[in-house]
Amino acid sequence: MSEPGYQSDTLKEFTPEPTDARRVVVLISGNGSNLQALIDAQTHDELGGEIVAVISNEPDAYGLQRARDAGIDAVVLPHREYESRDAYDGALIKVIERHEPDLIVLAGFMRILSPRFVQRFLGRMLNIHPSLLPAYQGLNTHARALADGVTEHGCSVHFVTEELDGGPVALQAAVAVADDETKASLKQKVHAREHLIYPIAVKWFLEGRLQLGAEGVTFDGQPLPPQGLRMSHADAAEELDEDQEV
């Protein structure tokens, strides 16, 4: 999904003023594998910005160590020290805004967000969910998909709204479900696709290509369908060097 470089004969002698990198804050609660995918993209100048802080509500989240290893500010804000969800979210807003982010990325942040929090960052907060939304909102998505006998599953990047897992979808990646699929094998395939598309969606947002407005999600100014942009199983498998036999 690379883009051709732009060149102009009239601007050959022009040296643009350096601009500050777009700033990203990532919220986690656990292992942080999607965080690592974002860090890897940043390392290869493929994120479109800089992760300036990683914040966890769980002090022992391994994702905090991933942040420290990458030289990123790792912040612990334990939710159990606050008497209510609203009190915690108020403190979290203050910590986030201290870092002046352009985008907040939820990467396995296992908290239901208050309306106050969502409205504060509406339009600049992304989440990734392990299903092809609107199917299988909530937990245990892989087991539920297998129990229903679906032939296609996947993951979705969506903007966060007050409806749990119900915000407008920006980007999806599909998985063809094999006849002998297990919960473990399906989870592995979906995780691989999460790590593939989340950095892409973040980059598009930071470049101003992906936006949420009054009419929904747009990409390069064009409205997207309800499922957003969809990467097929074949295209994802090719990107990931997977065996495509199903």
UniProtKB/TrEMBL annotation:
Residues covered by region (Disordered): 222-246
Annotated keywords: Purine biosynthesis, Transferase
Active-site positions on this chain: H129
Annotated binding of N(1)-(5-phospho-beta-D-ribosyl)glycinamide, by residue: G32, S33, N34
Annotated positions for site Raises pKa of active site His: D165
Origin: domain of life: Bacteria
Residue ranges occupied by any Formyl transferase N-terminal domain in the UniProt entry: 23-201
Enzyme Commission (EC) number: 2.1.2.2
Reaction catalyzed: N(1)-(5-phospho-beta-D-ribosyl)glycinamide + (6R)-10-formyltetrahydrofolate = N(2)-formyl-N(1)-(5-phospho-beta-D-ribosyl)glycinamide + (6S)-5,6,7,8-tetrahydrofolate + H(+)
PROSITE patterns in UniProt: GART (PS00373)
Pathway annotation: Purine metabolism; IMP biosynthesis via de novo pathway; N(2)-formyl-N(1)-(5-phospho-D-ribosyl)glycinamide from N(1)-(5-phospho-D-ribosyl)glycinamide (10-formyl THF route): step 1/1
Bias (Acidic residues): 237-246
GO molecular function, one term: phosphoribosylglycinamide formyltransferase activity
PANTHER family cross-referenced by the UniProt entry: PHOSPHORIBOSYLGLYCINAMIDE FORMYLTRANSFERASE
Entry similarity comment: Belongs to the GART family.
Role summary: Catalyzes the transfer of a formyl group from 10-formyltetrahydrofolate to 5-phospho-ribosyl-glycinamide (GAR), producing 5-phospho-ribosyl-N-formylglycinamide (FGAR) and tetrahydrofolate.
The protein, known as: Phosphoribosylglycinamide formyltransferase
Species the sequence originates in: Halomonas flagellata
Name of the encoding gene: purN
